[in-house]
Amino acid sequence: MISINRIYLLACLILAPSAARADNVYLQPESIYLGDVTELVIEYENSIPSLYALNTAALEAEFELLEKKSRIIRVNEAGDVFHRMQWRLQIAPRRIGSLTIPTIKFGDRSTPPLALEVKPVPAETEAANRVFVAMDTATPAPYVGQQTQVRLRLYSNTALADGRLDEPQADGNRMHHGTAEKRYSINRNGQSFQVLERNLVLFPGNVGDLELAPASYRGALAGRSRGDGTGRRIHRQSERLKLQVRPPPAEYDGRFWLPASQLEIIESFDGAGDQLQIGDPLDWTLTIISRGLPAESLPQDLLSLDSDNFRIYADRAIRHNRFEDGQIVGRLDQRFAVVATAPGQIKLPAINLKWWDVENDRAAETRLEGRNFTVIEPALSSGQPAFGEGLLAALRLTGNTYRPWIYFLLVLIVLAILVPGFGRLRHAVGTRLGRILYRREIRKNLELACLADDAMAARSALVDWARERWPKESIVGLQQIAVLMASAELRALFDELDAALYSRQECDWQGHRLWRLIAAAGKRHRPRAGAAADDRLPRLYPG
Question: Does residue 221 sit within a domain?
Answer without folding.
Answer: yes
